[in-house]
């Protein structure tokens, strides 16, 4: 078969080379398109917060601790107590100027999965302004 490539005309050789280049270009475009369509973890988290802020059920919670950029809180849904934490690092611009670092807050949670909850989002805040007492 090595002689088969030698027997190709110049036009056939150019056609094969162009076909190969076209295949590589289509593969590169497809790969870039696929990569651009993937959702980053930060975007997935932003969408989760937005969905909970828009359609989550609201309840009462207790802010247990603020450690660095993590809010630890607990809440009760139908007799089951949940303890959760939320990374508020990306939401610093939405924090109230002054809020109680412990005490009552509001929580929004998914009624079908109550463990999926938030205390702060871009469009909503369950943090209460002012210090208790």
Kindly describe this structure.
It is a single chain. The protein has 133 residues and is of the alpha+beta class. The chain has 2 domains: 2-37; 42-118, no CATH class. Helix content is 36%, strand content 31%. It has a 5-stranded antiparallel β-sheet. The longest helix has 28 residues, at 10-37. The protein is rod-shaped and about 85 Å long. The mean pLDDT is 89.
Which structural category do the helix and sheet elements fall into? alpha+beta
What is the H/E string? HHHEEEEE
Give the overall shape, derived from the CA principal axes: rod-shaped
Q: Give the end-to-end Cα distance, rounded to a whole number of Å.
A: 90 Å
Count of structural domains = 2
β content, as a range?
Answer: 25-35%
Helix content range: 25-40%
Question: Average pLDDT across residues?
Answer: 89
Number of strands: 5
Enumerate the strands of the largest sheet in spatial order, edge to edge or round the barrel.
3-2-1-4-5
Low-confidence stretches: none
Q: Count of DSSP helices?
A: 3
Q: Output the radius of gyration.
A: 27 Å
Sheet with the most strands? Answer: 5 strands, antiparallel
SSE topology:
Elements: H1 2-6, H2 10-37, H3 41-55, E1 57-67, E2 70-77, E3 80-87, E4 103-110, E5 113-118
Antiparallel strand pairs: 1-2, 1-4, 2-3, 4-5
Give keywords.
about 130 residues; alpha+beta; 5-stranded antiparallel beta sheet; about 35% helix; rod-shaped
